[in-house]
Design brief:
InterPro entries: NuoE-like, NuoE_dom, NuoE_N, Thioredoxin-like_sf. The chain is 38% helix and 10% strand. By secondary structure, the protein is of the alpha+beta class. It has two domains: 14-74, Arc Repressor Mutant, subunit A; 88-167, 3-Layer(aba) Sandwich (Glutaredoxin). The radius of gyration is 17 Å and the shape is elongated. It binds FE2/S2 (inorganic) cluster.
């Protein structure tokens, strides 16, 4: 994913700082980097689900490591976003089990319903549809990830309901939300 020039307001709230401190407390002083992945998750959750370079620099400063050590992690894992994304990102598994159970058809349906191509964000910033590799829930194919949750045995009707629920504010994206 390419790096974005979009501006991001950095806000490390006392609640978020307390969560970071708690994660860091699990490791010795010379191994603080071990907390990097969960810290990035929480920081990203609290910043509209993406991590600008400035925010990655802030994380490096908080942990006490070099910025490059954060960049290399953020750019490696697809769960970290380097540019603004849709509030509700539908991550459809398109690997074997899900593929044979109709992922492509469901993705096409979802994109068409939302009026976007794969990867695009809807003009209102609400939705984005992407294809990802196996999410380890093959027995529940076809499935997708939405925030911290899996939506399984998908059908077009279920997708209609999920979209409606997103618009109605009924979808909880994070199991352990730390918001601004
Ligand atoms: S093939 Fe879709 S979750 Fe494994």
């Amino acid at each position: 994913m390419e790096i974005s020039n979009a501006k991001q307001v950095i806000n490390i709230t006392p609640e978020l700082q307390a969560r970071i401190d708690e994660l860091l407390s699990h490791y010795p002083a010379d191994k603080r980097k071990s907390a990097l992945l969960p810290i990035l998750h929480d920081v990203q959750d609290a910043h509209d689900n993406w991590l600008s370079i400035e925010l990655q620099d802030k994380v490096a400063e908080i942990i006490g490591i070099q910025p490059i050590e954060v960049y290399e992690v953020v750019s490696f894992y697809t769960m970290y976003n380097q540019k603004p994304i849709g509030k509700f990102m539908f991550e459809f598994c398109r690997t074997s089990c899900c593929a044979v159970r109709g992922t492509e058809d469901l993705m096409e349906y979802t994109c068409s319903k939302l009026g976007v191509q794969e990867g695009e964000v809807t003009p209102d910033g609400m939705f984005q549809v992407v294809g990802v590799e196996c999410l380890g829930a093959c027995g529940y194919a076809p499935m997708m990830q939405l925030g911290d949750y899996y939506k399984e045995h998908l059908t077009k009707e279920k997708i209609d309901t999920i979209i409606d629920d997103c618009r109605a504010g009924k979808i909880d994206l994070h199991k352990q939300a730390i918001t601004e």
